[in-house]
Design brief:
The complex is a heterodimer of chains A (about 110) and B (about 110). Chain A is mainly beta and about 110 residues long. Helix content of chain A is about 0%, strand content about 55%. Chain A is built from no helices and eleven strands. Chain A is globular. Chain A starts with a strand and ends with a strand. Chain B is about 0% helix and about 60% strand. Chain B has no helices and eleven strands. In chain B, the strands form two sheets. In chain B, strands 2, 4, 5, 6, 9, 10 and 11 form a seven-stranded mixed sheet that branches. In chain B, strands 1-3-8-7 form a four-stranded antiparallel sheet, with no helix packed on it. Chain B is globular. Classes of the chains: A mainly beta (about 110), B mainly beta (about 110). At the A-B interface, strand 5, strand 9 and strand 10 of A face strand 4, strand 5, strand 9 and strand 10 of B.
């Protein structure tokens, strides 16, 4: 269906390490988005992807829209303590542009 | 900050009572969404609206109803609250020309 499968569920890394997380779906998405949520706050958009194959960077963050339009990944390079939070992928299914679905999130912990 | 306000921010209610959560926006955006966030499930879509009086169900709509009588307000109602509806509820808004969704601060609802 239109569910997004996000992995890993959680990551514990050392400061300075690179991070990679991904999202897959059995159906096609028109748009892939990556959000970050900090405690007590709503999610905030990090990167938006609009075309298959698109690779976009935002500082130390890089995300790609998969060629099949059924997956996306987010990389964080040289992690720092303030990268801690929950990262969500989200997307608009091709069958319904009004809809917006989220993955279950990846909880990132960065040890100084 | 995007002009989106959720009220109340916290609520404790008894099983079987009706509850209404309000989302108010000052951005005149077309789309409004209600999500619930639970550990291990990420953000799950309850209902969304694509215009005044135009709403549709999300993936976890049972036990919830919504109304949008004007552009700026999107109400989520639990007709008869159950303990399984204890959650953090987020409202989001999105314009028709942009993929980015802006989130409110969330409402923590506890049903006892």
């Amino acid at each position: 269906g239109q569910q997004l499968n996000q992995s890993p569920q959680s990551m514990f890394i050392q400061e300075g390490e690179d991070v990679s997380m991904n999202c897959t779906s059995s159906s096609i998405f028109n748009t892939w988005l990556w959000y970050k949520q900090e405690p007590g706050e709503g999610p905030v958009l990090l990167i938006a992807l609009y075309k298959a194959g698109e690779l976009t960077s935002n500082g130390r963050l890089t995300a790609q829209f998969g060629i099949t339009r059924k997956d996306s990944f987010l990389n964080i390079s040289a992690s720092i303590p303030s990268d801690v939070g929950i990262y969500f992928c989200a997307g608009q299914p091709s069958l319904n542009n009004n809809d917006m679905r989220f993955g279950a999130g990846t909880r990132l912990t960065v040890k100084p | 900050d995007a002009g989106i306000t959720q009220s109340p921010r916290h609520k404790v209610t008894e099983t079987g009572t009706p509850v209404t959560l309000r989302c108010h926006q000052t951005e005149n955006h077309r789309y409004m969404y209600w999500y619930r966030q639970d550990p291990g499930h990420g953000l799950r879509l309850i209902h969304y609206s694509y215009g005044v009086k135009d709403t549709d169900k999300g993936e976890v709509s049972d036990g919830y109803s919504v109304s949008r009588s004007k552009t700026e307000d999107f109400l989520l109602t639990l007709e008869s609250a159950t303990s399984s509806q204890t959650s953090v509820y987020f409202c989001a808004i999105r314009s028709s020309s942009n993929t980015e969704a802006f989130f409110g601060q969330g409402t923590r609802l506890t049903v006892v």
